[in-house]
Amino acid sequence: MGSGIYMERIKRTFKKLTIKKSFALLILLFLLLDIFLCLATAGLLQLLPGKYYALSSPLIVCLYSALCLASAACLFYKCKLEEPVRLIKEAAARIGRQDLDFRLSYDSADEMGELCRNVESMRLALEDNYHLLWSQAEEKKRINAAFAHDMRTPLTIIKGYLEFQELSAGSLSPKDLQKQAAVMKKHLARMENYIEAMNSLATPDGIRAIPSLIRPRKLEEELFRTAAMLCQRLHKSFIPESQLPGSPLSADPEIISRVLDNILSNAAAHASCTVTLRLSLKQGALLAEVSDDGPGFTTAALEKGCDPFFTEARDNGHQGLGLYTSCLLCLAHHGSLTLANAPEGGARVAASFLLFQDPKAPQKAGD
C-alpha cells in the first residue's frame, strides 16, 4: 500500500514537470540504465573467449542503447502525450459536430495541460457564441411576432369603419365620411410606421422614444375614439375619464398609442360589460389606467403577464405578446407597466410614460 502511494506521488510530480524537463529526465534515467546494463553485461561477457567478447560487446551496447531510447520514448508518450492528445482529438471531433455539451478537463501543469485549458476556453467561447446567436434569433422572432400583434388593432379599426360604412351606405354625410376616412388614413400611416420600424429594428434595446409636443385634448380624442371602436366591435361599453391639463405635453404619441391599443384590446376581450380608460399626470409622467369588469388576472398572469409568449387557456389564438410589447415600449419611454386586480373586481393595467422636458433631448427619470 505504501509503495502504491509512493508511485502515485511520483506520477503527480512527473505530470507537473514541463515537457522539456520530463523528456530530459527520462533520457537521463534510461541513459543511466543503459550504462548500468552495459557494464553488467560486460562483466558477464568477460567469461567468454576473447574473440566472442570482442564481437558481442559493440552489439550489446547498441542493442541496450536502442532499447533504452525506445523505452524512454514510449514512456514519455504514455505519460505526457497520450491522454491529452486523445482528449483534444475527441474535443475537436465533438466541436466539429457542433456538440458543445461537454467539458475538457486535464489536470496537469505542463504545456499539454495548458493546451487543454486553451481548448476548453475555446469551447466555452463557442458555446457562449452559439447561445448568443440563438438568443438573437429568438429575439428577432419575438420582435417580428410582436409587430404582427401590433398590426391587429389598426386593422381592426379600419375593418370596423368599413363595416360601418357598408351597413350605413347612403345614410352617412360627406362630413362623416371624410372624418372616418381621416381616421382610417391615420391608422394606415401607423401600419406603415410599424413596417418601417420592423425593418430597422434588431433588438428591443433598439426601441427609442421620439418625443414631440402634443395637445392633450387631441391625444384624448384619438385614444378615446380608438377605445370606443374596439369596445363597440365586441359589444362592450366604454367609459372615458381624463384629468389632463390643457398645456402641451412632450411625449412620443406613437408609443403611447401602441401601448394603449394593446391594453385596450385585451381589456375589451376580457371585460364582461365595461372598459374604462383614465388619463392623468402623476409625478412628471402621463399615467394611463385601463380597467375592466371581467374576471381579472390570475396569480400566474400577475407574475408573468409581461413575459413574452405567456398565455392562458382563455387566450386561445393569442401569442402572449401584447403586454410584453407594451412593457418594452413603456420602458423605452422611461416608464413602466403594472398589472393588478381592482378591489371591486376586474383587471387593471397602469402604463406610465415619462414626460420629456425637451422633445429633442430625452432624459431618464431622475436626471
How would you describe the overall organization of this protein?
The chain is an alpha+beta fold and 367 residues long. The protein folds into three domains: 2-127, no CATH class; 151-200; 207-354, Heat Shock Protein 90 (2-Layer Sandwich). 61% of the residues lie in helices and 12% in strands. It has ten helices and seven strands. Strands 2-4-5-7-6 form a five-stranded mixed β-sheet. Strands 1-3 form a two-stranded antiparallel sheet. A hairpin with a 5-residue loop joins strand 6 (336-341) and strand 7 (347-354). Helix 2 (19-45) packs antiparallel against helix 3 (50-96), helix 3 (50-96) packs parallel to helix 4 (111-150) and helix 8 (253-270) packs antiparallel against helix 10 (322-332). The two termini are 72 Å apart. It is a multi-pass membrane protein.
List keywords for this structure.
3 domains; five-stranded mixed β-sheet; 10 helices; ATP binding; rod-shaped; disordered C terminus; histidine kinase; 367 residues; 61% helix; alpha+beta; transmembrane helix; two-stranded antiparallel sheet; Heat Shock Protein 90; phosphorelay sensor kinase activity; 7 strands; cell membrane
List the helices and strands and how they pair.
Layout: H1 2-16, H2 19-45, H3 50-96, H4 111-150, H5 152-167, H6 174-200, E1 212-214, H7 216-233, E2 237-242, E3 249-251, H8 253-270, E4 274-282, E5 285-292, H9 299-304, H10 322-332, E6 336-341, E7 347-354
Parallel strand pairs: 2-4
Antiparallel strand pairs: 1-3, 4-5, 5-7, 6-7
Helix pairs in contact: 2-3, 3-4, 5-6, 5-7, 7-8, 8-10
